[in-house]
From TrEMBL:
Locations listed in the record: Cell outer membrane
Keyword entries, A-Z: Cell outer membrane, Membrane, Signal
Organism of origin: Novosphingobium rhizovicinum
Full protein name: MipA/OmpV family protein
Family recorded in the similarity comment: Belongs to the MipA/OmpV family.
Amino acid sequence: MRALSAFTCLALALAVQPAVAQDTAADAAMEGDRITVGIGGAYMPSYRGSDDYTVSPFPVIQGQVKGIGINPRAGGVALDFIPDNRASGFGVSLGPVATYSANRARGIEDDVVRAAGKLDEAVELGGTAGVTAYKLLSPYDSLTLSTDVRWDVAGAHKGMVWTPNLTYTTPLSRGSLVALNVGARHVDDDFARYYYSVTPAQSAASGLPVYDAEGGWDSINVGLLGGYDFDGDLLNGGFAAFGAVAYSKMLNDGKDTPFTSVRGDTDQWIAGLGLAYTF
């Protein structure tokens, strides 16, 4: 996964998990075991800050097993060890998160950026926490404020990433829903130097100017997801389709790095379609 963070944050709302229940039996079904698996294709930048676009497949897994929530991340997964009771109107999430990133490790479309050299793949481990309010504007909607904090353990950027997100989800009918997500990403100096700096050696190889990057907020994003259950009932599992569009704006050194300002674009778009099945 190279640049799927905005899109996959929306896939959290792939609440093709039941979202339109109100009666006791439906609430019990929502709190029982269920797994949604999906596959989709995304049209997205070839690296963060690129103006070249590629189509890439991505998997999604979401659900709950024995009270443990399973939620998708870009190239990874997060667990929630605190079960929610929707009837109370409030929920809390807390658990580990793991992601994989191949940003500028492969699939680079730009010849100049490729000449600067490929980077190593990153594996980020950390934690996620959040709070959810249910039944705000209708008996069936929810608003979730969450954040992930992750550290690279694979020896790539060796830094820390912090990603707060706010997601509002509401059904349009018993068989369809939409979710709106806004978020941001903060990176430390190690991350920024690895992805946004241009070293003298990279400058000599690519012709890009030398650049020394520092950490900070490197992007903000907003996106919209929609899902539709093929039999018109999100509560009973089966096949569903989902689609999303997301926009990210590169900020600070993520914007000013020559990889973006000279060879790429601060405006980043992602669009995707997918198919999911809930057991």
